[in-house]
Amino acid sequence: MKATFRKSMIWLHTYLGVLLGWLLFAIFFTGTLSYFTPEITRYLMPERGHISQSQQSMIAHSFAYLGTHAGEADQWRIALPSERSAHWSVQWREGKQRRTVTFNNQLAASENETETKGGLFFRNFHYTLQLRGYGGRYIAGIAAMAMLLAIFTGIYTHRRFFKDFFTLRSQKLQKWTTDFHALAGILTIPFCIMICLSGIFIYAIMYLPYTANANFEKGERGVNSQIIPSLPNLALTEKVTGDDYLSNLQPPLPHYAHILETIANQWREANPIARITVEGVGYKDSRVIVERSKATTVSNRADRLVFETYTGNPLKGYDDETLPAQIRRILYGLHQANFAPIAMRWLLFGLGILGCALIATGNIIWVAQRKKSARQNPFTLALVEKGNVVAVAGLILASLSFFIANKLIGHDVAGRAQFEVNAFFTVWALSAVHAFWRAKAAVAWKEQFALASGLCFVTVVIELVLFRDRIVNSIENIDSVYLSFIPAFFISSIILYWAAKKIGLRIIKAEIATKSTKPSTCVRKEQK
User: Fold this and answer.
1) CB atoms < 10 A from the CB of 493, how many?
2) Which of these, 506, 442, 510, lies nearest to 173 by C-alpha position?
3) pTM for the whole structure
4) pLDDT tens sequence across 328-351
5) Distance CA 37, CA 343 (A)
């Protein structure tokens, strides 16, 4: 510990950032992209276009298809599209076998969607680090706890909030970086606390399993079975047979108008239904579970209504969750922000980018300060300096390679989703080789940012050349979700080019300054 409490806080704040900064940047960056998980998936799947059908017509068509092709199934599920996902599908189960069919705006069915991890890759990496079976969620949890500690020590370290907020010295890059770090920290304090706390609460039982293991036979699963309400098991006794059975399969289901009326009275927003599940298909005591869109609630679990399939009468639904479970679900919902309209999601995205900048500038400041210190360790300094390049520029390159791989790999290539993931990690590894191969980290920063700028531009070119039909169709149907990706990549290309140019100018100035000092040194030697 240091001589004073404040110096101890500064030391703790500094080394929490140095030791976990790379990990935190990866978690924050992929989490920021995850605010647009459905949109990214939609962008990476060419068959997912705008759907203009009404919910009633989609439900009727889905039941008609299921009645014709899945009459022997014991469960049906209809997933209706939202403005964000444009994903309309039906799924049924026959024993242990599941089949999924998707529909487009022309009501055409397909079982051969583009194989891709889509936006789920970034979301899953955000909290598992691609180590789901190897403790990835524990590592992410430790990082979230460390980030909270870094936030509070940072608040104590930077006590001059108003002065720091209005100070941004642009004359020298190091001073600008220090001021921007303080400014980003002030702007993102509530956001970072909310994200870290909610992320910890999502897996609170997993991080603190002792009570669960001591009081429940199945530990964490036993707790979840107790606190998560469920419906009673169906007692399927009498099948609907003959003409009655065939007629009941035709859309809409008998008395479905009564179900729709009940739904309309309780859920008054437009297009309120997200999913419909029919359990016990073909039996008189079958039931229908209708799930509401999550856009209407802060919680990560939407309302659900339950009805008898062949009468339309409402059944007793799910019991209310306990207060702790409701708090956890609200925190879960705040973390995911499925409720957020487009403007709020862009605001959260911007705060996420600022959080990434906060972490990156913190590590860059540490390197700049250690370069001035007489007690610097050359190996540690070089490791952190080059590692910063890999953690920031390398991750950006890897993410862009994921998008480009998706566009260039053939639709029918087996295992193409894994090829996308392999491209991501291969490019990230190559960026590490490049950064440590270069003698100067500044040169690696410049070249990797320049390459990232070029890849953003290449992504736009690929879209304009290979997917012209999709662009035209999106313009005709005003598909703003898909079309927004093209200017987003173009703007990112400009920003990354500007960053590469700024770093390049810094390198030139440093070289000029070095050359200008050499003659003066020679003159002093001659004078001696």
Assistant:
1) 20
2) 506
3) 0.90
4) 899 999 999 998 899 999 999 999
5) 16
